Amino acid sequence: MLQVDPTSSVPPFEQLREQITAQVESGELRAGDRLPTVRRLAEDLGLAANTVARAYRELEGDGLLEGRGRSGTFVADDDSGRAARVAARTYATTVRSLGLSQDEAVDLVRRALSA
Q: Most buried among 5, 41, 81, 85, using CB within 10 Å?
């Protein structure tokens, strides 16, 4: 179930993006699963439709979701490139929230890849 914490410093669209990403990564949402419409999810969460639409657009850009016009929004077919993009975005969000600089974050990735 998706939830938004209005007291969080993380914007609501980003909270949705992170939660949907986590649900796909955990297998709770699978390729081909249909997501709620923008309006319905916005109503359910007490958000503006534009907030939900932004989260969906960003997830489409990540390759995680695909919009099929009037048919709705679906979890995209799985591929390793998409998984890597999702992991990179999740990492970037995490290191930003920890206050690390871009150089520090990249250095950590280099060390991890060398290990």
A: 41
User: pTM of the prediction?
Assistant: 0.70
For the chain, the structural domain boundaries read 12-114
The closest alpha carbon to 78, from 39, 27, 115, 34, belongs to 27
Look-up: residue for tokens 């923008």?
Answer: 38
At residue 43, the pLDDT reads: 97
pLDDT at 84: 76
What are the pLDDT digits (tens) for 20-62? 999 988 889 998 999 999 999 999 999 999 999 999 999 998 8
Distance CA 65, CA 52 (A): 13
Fold classification of 12-114 is Arc Repressor Mutant, subunit A (1.10.10)
Token code pair at residue 110: 């280099």
Q: Which residue has the tokens 């109503």?
A: 43
DSSP secondary-structure letter at 63? T
Name the residue type at position 90. T
